[in-house]
Amino acid sequence: MSLNNIRIVLIGTTHPGNIGSAARAMLTMGLTDLYLVNPAKFPNAQATTMASGADSILANATVVSHLQEAIADCHVVIGTSARSQRTIQWPQMDARECGEFIAEQDYHNKTAIIFGRESSGLSNEELELCQRLVSIPVNPDFSSLNLASAVQVIGYECSVAINHQQGDASHDNVKRQLVTTQEMELFYQHFESTLIELRYLDPEKPRLIMRKIRSIFGRIEPESTELNLLRGILSAAQGRKFLPRNQRNDKKTIN
Amino acid sequence: MSLNNIRIVLIGTTHPGNIGSAARAMLTMGLTDLYLVNPAKFPNAQATTMASGADSILANATVVSHLQEAIADCHVVIGTSARSQRTIQWPQMDARECGEFIAEQDYHNKTAIIFGRESSGLSNEELELCQRLVSIPVNPDFSSLNLASAVQVIGYECSVAINHQQGDASHDNVKRQLVTTQEMELFYQHFESTLIELRYLDPEKPRLIMRKIRSIFGRIEPESTELNLLRGILSAAQGRKFLPRNQRNDKKTIN
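The joint structure predicted for all components is written out below.
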């Protein structure tokens, strides 16, 4: 499945700002196909303002007067719903399952995701045109999800699932090149000898402190430059006695 | 981990409507703890309008003038970032990993998630106060995620992960109780003064080394006993000059 094959359908949107916010949310998630069924006001300056640069989504949006027109060429139709529908048992998914379900679709299957009115959601007639329902898990005591936020979360789940499926091609995480176990062992040896010189560690009973040190520094998973920094500090802690200037400072401090 | 222990911190928010939208997004996901660092306008009627019923979040929001105040009692601090930071390698997570990471925290560990300015995000100084970074995977050609949308997605991932975990009865991992940010700051101060005494660090130009130290030790996420161990070592490195016996050894070594 490709993000290009997902269509967002907004039905009877009252506030044009919500259309703009939804367009912005779509484009951040790589969705571009927007259908508007009977929007109260569109085109509209407030929609453009709230789109915040996602003008292309609004410019290419298709306005229709019936849901049927918006989904006629679609293969899969999913309705968003605030709560599980009790009257008729549609297959129901949460947002994550929805993203995974869509990602598993064949590349050629166009999928529509339908969002209802801000106040009342989808009518029963509209629900009947859906094959499946998706709901976003929300706080049961405050379930008032903004329309554009719902588009954002569903779009996010679609984007994550599809990108994941495509082998994380767009995942631009910088990989850290960690040091080898051998280099870490040399670091621990250096650490231990420094602690002994500092008289922090009794060489007769070194075990427990070094186990703790290993537990702490094992979490760092350092790169080479970082390990060099730490070893430089150890050397500085050891090296003071070889620096005559420090010696003089020491004397002043003591007397 | 509980949703109650997650704090959302918004820094320098320009548009009060975004504060309201963020509050609404928080409450839909069950998050209630909001800190505002130097908001441009707050309280504000537009914030209340956009909160759309999430008034309690705004009424209980804490306004502070420095990020440090917002995170002093937190154990885990996560900064949101639009892109991976290349200069210094903080541990980086995507939104899903972030939710799972937070869900795995001990119940007592308070976690702050920091969101930067609408225009410019987090400054380098603010990033340095974070132990980890999270970014939401976005369309590389249009990454302009609205502030409240970012809060919505991160909050959604936290909510899903925590609710998932709480359904997992057999979760008997031993949780680590981490130190607070304030204790870590005292540790870094101790570290810096020690490095200056060791002449490893030039007090005129301390920045880069301490940034690296923060990047390295931020990963440790220590418990109290571990931080005490590290501070004990720092004290030992400092304390040599107060030990006449060491002094005598030093003289022998040099001459």
